[in-house]
Amino acid sequence: MSGWEQLQRILDCSINAVEVPTSDHPELAGLGPGTLIDHVDGYLQVIIQSDNRNIRVLQVHRDNLTETERQLISWSVARSSHITTKGVSKQDAKSEAERNARALGDWIVRQSASGLTESIPDEIALDGRLYAEMIPFLLETEQATEAAAFGELQKLLVSFLDEEVIVIPLKGQEWLVLAPVSLVRDTLEERDEQADALEESLESIGSGLYEMLASEWIGECHLAVGRPMKPVKSVVMSVIQLQETIELGRVFQVGSNIHVPWNMHLERLLASIPEQVRLRYVEQALGRSDVFMETETMSTLDTFFALDCNVSETAKKLYIHRNTLLYRLDKLKQETGLDVRVFRDAVLMKIILLLYKVTKRA
Hints:
Arc Repressor Mutant, subunit A; 9 strands; Transcriptional regulator, CdaR; Homeodomain-like_sf; elongated; CdaR-like_regulators; Alpha-Beta Plaits; four-stranded antiparallel beta sheet; alpha+beta
């Protein structure tokens, strides 16, 4: 005689087990085995098992149960569930977590490829964890990673951030990492007034994360970080934006492996211009298209613009004398007719430099 049949005999009532999609009863998601729920139709429901896809409940059809009988039902169901799952290994639980993450990753990839930006269906929303605001990181490795890398990456991230994270495999060389906003709690409360502080915090976290991953996990890689968002509604748009950010970073920020979308507005605009138009504009503006061919010229301009056109700081960063830098800038003025120490010419030179980069690497 089964446990349910024994319970039915003791209580002298009808008992049956049913299974329903979690999406039909989201309020029951995550409730533990043995949880009692009084149904509006007069019968008692008891949670047997609940996950992100289905909820299995026991229905006890009697409306005059005593408190002792209710406790007996709860204990019986909880004990039965414990016996059933006691033999499940930690490895099985980890495998289930990875399967769920990969299912979500496949859904994100399909949505992105089709141009859709729908909300995540409840059945793959990872037990409701994606309803909370989180920080998105997109990691692109230079080489394909093995399936076993899932557990290794998650372990490294949890150890480094000292927070629980969600790791979602996308393509063979892409990983989406969702971290709690508690990482930037100090600046998050005032982000409307201090957006720069929040962005600096996110860049700092991204920098440390990249250094750790590059040295302890996969080696050369690219990392993009976005502003906090609610994954259940915005994860597809966030992934698309971060993929674009890394793509632009590979072109315009050669030598850098950490990329953020709020520093890419001009690059995003210029990259949308047709290649022939870009090339023609560079040649017309400078009279020659090879003025940036020298590594020294490119490095000098990149550093000069990165430091807000500050001559002293640029010389210090390049480990050269201030007069040496001034000589380089004067030489560039002679060759191009543009003095980057003058605002108008600096803006034009910055645009030309970016157009040259994207044209040569298109």
